[in-house]
Every structure is written in structure tokens, then in C-alpha cells.
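Raw record, unedited: Aminoglycoside phosphotransferase family protein
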Amino acid sequence: MIDIPDELIATQYAYNGAAGRAFVAALPELAGRFLEEWGLRPDGPSMYGMCALVLPVVREVDGVPAALKLQSVDEETAGEPVALRAWGAAGAGAVGLLDHDPGTGALLLERLDEGKPLSGAADVRGAVVVLGEVLARLAAVPAPEGLRTLGGAVERMLAAAPGAAGRLADAADRRLLADCAAAVREVAGEPGDRLLHWDLHYDNVLAGRADAGRAGEWVALDPKPLAGDPGFELFPALDNLFDADEVVWRFDALTEALGLERDRGRARAWTLGRVLQNAVWAVGQGEGRIAPDHAEIARRLLGR
């Protein structure tokens, strides 16, 4: 028997409907299958993210601590093992991939210290600097063939922008969305070719473990990878642990860490692209406004 956290069940039911209910129902059998096939024994309480169940385990053959991640296969998760292999080969600071089942999307990952996320750092500015260093290592790796691309995402968000703007209740939100779309159009012709994490916020960076030879290292996990421009990576670090007065400082620190400080206009445009992408998604879910934090990030970067 495994424990499936109520929060994961609620998220799957709310956002994925029938597919989410089927995913939750299949989890006990799926966990049992890979515990047996990969020779694992449970080693602690279940953990979860927005779309995955994570079981702390130990490999019986060698006693190595690991994490069994169970998730649905979709356009975001399909590229995760591809990205982790590329980052692993480059020594780029991502969680290690120990095994993978393509049919189910199950991953066996290096165990990190889940009790020490970067979000728990007392010095938030220091955490921003660390995250920037992690991002720089990840984005230095060229994207492997076959990943989803920022170019494709841009086409979809720009096509959806006029309709999304028309469903926003506030005129200021409509103008802001139009400004974000205009900024993206200026850079859309060069979407980039770096391997991007897409969701690197402070809870997706954990301390490495000494028994894995990674004591003192901060390690990225849970990517939703795509090929694109590193400027598209900055938004999560501005939104997570949100502080309106720190938006510009964080943006400057991150662009410096990624070597983008000479072309901050381009990085700003891609960050506004994330605001646009999120707004289009939110409107599609029935929201009638841009999330206040997201709108404030856009306004600060536009100098308003």
C-alpha cells in the first residue's frame, strides 16, 4: 500500500478531469510494479508535486537511496528524461537519472535532501544568486533534438493572445497583455536553442546529499524542458517568493548570472512572454484577469 496525498488527488481531479482520476486510480498498481521491477523498497512517506507522486526508496541491490517518480506522460513530461541525460552528461547540476520507463513515464532519480529546498534559505537575495548560478549551468547545454520548442510555444501564445485579451475584464489588463504580446513579437524570430528547465523556482532546487557525493551542492529537479532562449527562464524566480520591490533587482541579478546583461531588452521581452503564456492559460481556465503578481512583474519590467 502507498499513501497518495490528498493534495495531489485534488489537483489531478481539478485540472485533469477524467484523465486525472484515472492517473490517481492507477498509482498503487504502478508503484507496486516498479518497486518490484527495479528492486526497490520504500524508505519514507510519499511526496508530491503538481503532477507527480514521488516515493523515497532504496535500491536493494546496492543500498543506494533514490526517488521513484510517477507521472503522466504529456508534452511537458516526455522530455524530462531526455533533458536529465543531457544535463548529466555535461555535469550541469541537475538531479541524476537512474532509470526510466518510456511507456509510463516512471523515473528513478537520485535522492536529494527534500528537507533543504532553496526556498528555505534565510537570505532571499542569496537564494536568487544561487538559482541564477544553477540556471546558468543548465542553459549552457544545447537542447537535444526532439524536445518541444519555444518557437512552437510562441506561435500558440501569439495566436491565442487577441482572444484572451478580449476575455479580460479590466482594460488595464488588456493593455498589459497587448504590450506583452508586442514585446514577444520583437524576439519571436530567434527563439533560441538552449536546453531550458522552464520551471526553475526555489522549491525546485534542493541540497545534494553527502552519500551521493554532492554535499554543499544545489541541484535542480522537476524540469518541464524545452529548447529556447535563456531569457525565458527568469520568470519563475521573480514570481516565486514574490516581492514587488525586488523584481528589478532579481531580474538584473539573473541576467548577469546568465550572461544576458548586455541584452536585457531581449531577456525582458521573453520574461513578458511568460506573463503572456500564463495569462493565456489562465483565461483558458476561466479566469477573467491577469494574476496580480504576474501583472506587477510585467509593469515593473516595463518601468511602470
